Amino acid sequence: MPPAAEFRVHGEAMRTVTLRVGELARWPSHRAEVTFSCLTSGAQHHVFTGPLLRDVLTTFCPGVRTARRKERSRLLVAVTGRDCHQAVVAWAETDPEFGNAPILLAATLDGRSLESGGCQLVVPGDACGARYVSSVTGIWIGAHAFAGPTRDPRDTATGDEPPAGPAWPARSGS
Ligand SMILES: Nc1nc2c(c(=O)[nH]1)N[C@H]1C(S)=C(S)[C@@H](COP(=O)(O)O)O[C@H]1N2
Ligand SMILES: [Mo]
């Protein structure tokens, strides 16, 4: 048996954890049958199973559960493969209160375990294959940190958000 592939889940508001693909079985498994096109190899059709990316991230990054919508709206999830191929998913794409997309961290591909090769990001809505990052070694979550105004004064007037403290470090300049 080849050694099990490990990947790191880390970010700005959490402790770093290292997981094996087999440990993805602790979350409810979802199935995605997808077709995407690749510039070099044409149309690809695959069946993946694994947990929702958001279920894994909310487990280790509890701040994402309590963060206000306007904090969640600026979160990024960067996924890195063993070959350093990277793709970014906006947290909001997968958040039930925003895009609610069933983005997976797949533990099987076409019925085969990814335990030794590494898990794979699955973005079923994508027509192009570039974000189906395979052999995942790292998943990072954090806030977009451009140096701009930090607070829209209208934030306090909406009334639909609890006055919670920020879960992520404030942008520079605040
Ligand atoms: N780690 C890694 N994942 C990757 C890539 C890559 O170069 N490295 N290429 C992407 C691209 S461009 C495509 S089209 C799909 C191809 O997936 P397939 O080989 O299962 O058809 O993998 C994606 N995932
Ligand atoms: Mo591709």
From TrEMBL:
Pfam families in the cross-refs: Oxidored_molyb
Disordered as annotated region, ranges: 150-174
InterPro entries: OxRdtase_Mopterin-bd_dom, OxRdtase_Mopterin-bd_sf
The Oxidoreductase molybdopterin-binding domain, residue ranges: 6-146
Name of the protein this chain belongs to: Molybdopterin-dependent oxidoreductase
Organism expressing this protein natively: Streptantibioticus silvisoli
